[in-house]
Amino acid sequence: MINVVDINEDKFVDEVIEKSKTIPVIVDFWAPWCGPCKQLTPTLEKVVNKKNGKVILAKINVDENQGIASQLNIQSIPTVYGFVNGKPVDAFQGAQPESKVEVMVDKMIEATPGNEIPKLLDEADQLFKDHKFEESLTVYERLVSMDPGNPKIIAGFLRCLIQLKRFGIAQEMFESFDESILENDEIIKIKKLLNSSNKDGSSISLEKLEEEVKMKPKNKELRFSLAESYLSSSENEKGFNELLKIFEQEPNWNEGAAKKKLLEFFDLLGFNDPNVAAARKKLSSMMFK
């Protein structure tokens, strides 16, 4: 299938309206004299070609097709419309960065009639929230095979691997990603999380810290080190609990280190993490009691 086509207004119904009933179509209204168009069109083509036939880009020269431009009230160019199931579902004007174009395209793909991906994503997310990481991983594996370049799917897959302490597989995945994936905000957070993980699986220092904290329960430095060790081992609930104990005892200890570490990992782990919501609620109750 050809992913990028040049069309005129006579082909608009067939190539955009009808075709979008089975596959999303992005319509790029441009003109040869338009500077921003020369910036945007290559970006659109790049994003569309990455989707491996899941979306089509239809380019329309407004100088040669003023009738359809007038019907769609095109007042400036470049203007981009997204069509799904025969109807416009999104639009923007002016040159946009690749990341924003990709977000729009991914939403269109997910909204395509008969697309299983949104339902499976919800299922995988719920399993993750229920601490059923193995089952969630299985669903994400299926999703990766269906849409291998989707950053949302890749992020969920990686988070399952980290929860299951399969750090080596996660690292191998990062080494295979292209730049567009590595530049995604969510993927960047997961990379930081992976870099902070205890990849060798050593529990010697963790066990020693646990014993030392039992012997010196008021020593906040030891407890903070224990919290960091738990977090690096993906024992997030235990790590959060130790940090919350420090905050409850002395909120401003070491310039608020416990709260800073909590907020850092809330951000890295994301709202879907099953332990973040509970720890965030406990922290809020301590802050505002």
Any overview of this molecule?
The protein has 15 helices and 5 strands. It is 59% helix and 10% strand. A 5-stranded mixed sheet has the order 1-3-2-4-5, with helices on both faces. The mean pLDDT is 91. By secondary structure, it is an alpha/beta fold. The protein has 3 domains: 4-110, Glutaredoxin; 117-195, Serine Threonine Protein Phosphatase 5, Tetratricopeptide repeat (Alpha Horseshoe); 204-287, Serine Threonine Protein Phosphatase 5, Tetratricopeptide repeat (Alpha Horseshoe), CATH 1.25.40. The chain has helices at residues 12-18, 35-50, 66-71, 98-110, 117-129, 133-146, 151-163, 167-176, 179-182, 185-195, 204-215, 220-232, 236-249, 257-269, 276-287; strands at residues 4-6, 25-30, 56-61, 79-84, 87-93.
CATH-defined topology of the largest domain: Glutaredoxin
Cα Rg: 24 Å
Helical fraction equals: 55-70%
Assembly state here? single chain
* Assigned CATH architecture of the largest domain: 3-Layer(aba) Sandwich
Molecular shape: elongated
How many independent structural domains?
3
Compute the separation of the termini in Å. Answer: 61 Å
Low-pLDDT runs: none
Kindly report the spatial arrangement of strands forming the biggest sheet.
Answer: 1-3-2-4-5
Q: DSSP helix count?
A: 15
